[in-house]
Design goal:
The longest helix has 20 residues. Strands 1, 5, 6, 7, 8, 9, 10, 11 and 12 form a 9-stranded mixed sheet that branches. A 5-stranded mixed sheet has the order 14-13-15-16-17, sandwiched between helices. The protein has 2 domains: 314 residues, BirA Bifunctional Protein, domain 2, CATH 3.30.930.10; 94 residues, Anticodon-binding domain (Rossmann fold), CATH 3.40.50.800. The radius of gyration is 28 Å and the shape is elongated. It has 449 residues and is α+β, with helices and mostly antiparallel strands. Helix 4 runs parallel beside helix 10 and helix 6 packs antiparallel against helix 7. The chain contains 15 helices and 17 strands. Bound molecules: histidyl-adenosine monophosphate (HAM).
């Protein structure tokens, strides 16, 4: 039993974050770019609970996540419940639930928090927020083109230069053909090969080659030749002229062409990109920062046409991605791209010279707030100098201290703390004055947590 007298730690649970206001402002900036960009593409926001029945993930997503990374518990009614480790099965459930009444294509986005029992490290935590954007109901390559250009516009929205990041693409269909038909693998063995290919970039060359030869025997040479190909053309040249393959190659070429036509050229074919989830059926992609300080993917996504199979409804062709808040924040810090002026708590710091004027101050604050000004009231009876210092410490740009003179003259002196300049304004002109200043100085959304 815990000792009730024992003092508790103020640390957060391992691998999760507390967002004090300064961090919250950064988080809201990230969410702001995500949401604005999705809305520009006509995506609508949805939300769902963090609790899902454990069965939603079993055998349908990723073995690694289900067996090693989920937070699952039994509730008081004996149901197995999982804290969602990803949003894709949830959004598939939502679409399946309204399959008959939705008008396709459906474009949706969400910014859920997700839970994975990982070893906490740079870029990987146990709770992260992830933008999910998915387009449902388009079978053709225009869906991949739109989803990848949305990802690209988000990177631009954060001010990241094309030369600093890379979009890597591959095709699950091609890789399934190689592993299944050419290497003759299925089931657990096929999965192991896919996982090994996925880990290649993180392994020593010799260790990788040894593991590959143990898995594939003599067939490892063919796979090594394919994996070592320098580009798409060389990779294709090692593969047979099969209809199934040539269709997939045509798809990759069409996608590259369409993205190039949109001016998106920092895109490469990467035959080692596998994506850990079982549900992908076609093009898969990830986005990486080129700076070695941030080796983990920023985005991951692809086409998953069959996931709705798990519900008793007709399938819907779908493409989507997830982009995490942890990795993008690291990247924005690396390139010094976080906005310098994050939103302050208020526009105006209002206080009474002494208690007598508190009622008037409260009235004025109420009417200014109703007019759209953010006002913080200082109820203390301290010196004017102290009040101004407090406003400055809170980074509130304007101060007004109300005394008899202000009340009787109806002229309030509003002081701009950064310029040290005072402006005398009639009560009903203050809101207009502050709002004008606010919109001229705003370089980002004023969302707060
Ligand atoms: P994912 O590759 O597991 O894909 O995650 C997508 C992104 O979420 C990663 O690129 C990374 O930015 C971030 N992320 C993932 N795990 C963590 C973690 N433990 N800590 C911090 N950030 C993390 C999916 O989840 C798919 N369901 C995405 C998707 C949506 N596919 C289609 N639609």
């Amino acid at each position: 039993m815990t000792d009730p007298k024992k003092k508790l730690s103020t640390e957060a649970y391992k691998g999760v974050r507390d967002f004090y206001p300064a961090d919250c402002a950064i988080e809201q900036y990230i969410f702001g770019v995500w949401k604005e960009t999705c809305k520009k593409f006509g995506y609508e926001e949805y939300m769902a609970s963090i609790l899902e029945p454990a069965d939603l993930y079993r055998g349908k997503t990723s073995e690694e996540i289900v067996n090693e990374q989920t937070y699952t518990f039994t509730d008081r009614g004996d149901r197995e419940v999982t804290l969602r480790p990803e949003m894709t099965p949830t959004v598939a459930r939502l679409i399946a639930g309204k399959r008959k009444t939705l008008f396709f294509p459906v474009r949706w986005f969400s910014t859920p928090n997700l839970f994975r029992y990982e070893r906490p490290q740079r870029g990987r935590l146990r709770e992260h927020y992830q933008l999910n954007a998915d387009i449902f109901g388009l079978p053709g390559i225009e869906a991949e083109t739109e989803i990848i250009s949305l990802a690209y516009e988000i990177m631009r929205g954060f001010g990241i230069k094309d030369s600093n990041f890379e979009i890597r693409i591959n095709s699950r269909k091609v890789m399934n053909y190689i592993i299944g038909t050419l290497l003759g693998q299925s089931g657990e063995q096929a999965r192991k090969t896919a996982q090994l290919i996925d880990r290649r970039s993180k392994m020593e060359k010799e260790v990788f080659e040894k593991a590959l030869s143990e898995l594939l025997g003599e067939k490892d040479a063919l796979l090594l030749t394919l994996l070592n190909s320098k580009n798409f053309e060389e990779f294709v040249s090692h593969l047979p002229e099969e209809k199934e393959l040539s269709e997939s190659f045509a798809e990759i070429k069409a996608l590259l062409g369409a993205l190039n036509a949109l001016g998106i050229t920092n895109i490469v074919f990467d035959q080692t990109l596998m994506r850990g989830f079982d549900y992908y059926t076609g093009i898969v992609f990830e986005v990486f920062d080129k700076n070695p300080a941030n080796p983990r993917s920023l985005f991951g996504g692809g086409r998953y046409d069959d996931l709705l199979d798990m519900f008793a409804v007709e399938k819907v062709p779908t493409v989507g991605f997830g982009m995490g808040d942890v990795t993008i924040r690291d990247v924005l810090e690396t390139y010094d791209l976080l906005p310098k002026n994050l939103p302050t708590a208020a526009d105006l710091y209002l206080s009474a010279m002494d208690k007598e004027w508190t009622g008037y101050v409260n009235d004025l604050a109420q009417s200014l707030r109703r007019a759209g000004v953010r006002v913080v009231v200082d109820y203390s009876e301290g010196k004017v100098g102290t009040k101004v210092k407090n406003a400055d410490r809170a980074k509130i740009p304007f101060v007004a201290i109300i005394g008899e003179q202000e009340k009787t003259s109806g002229q309030i002196k509003v002081k701009n703390l950064s310029l040290g300049k005072e402006t005398a304004l009639a009560e009903d002109k203050i809101a207009e004055f502050l709002i004008k200043y606010q919109s001229a100085n705003e370089d980002q959304s004023t969302n707060t947590c």
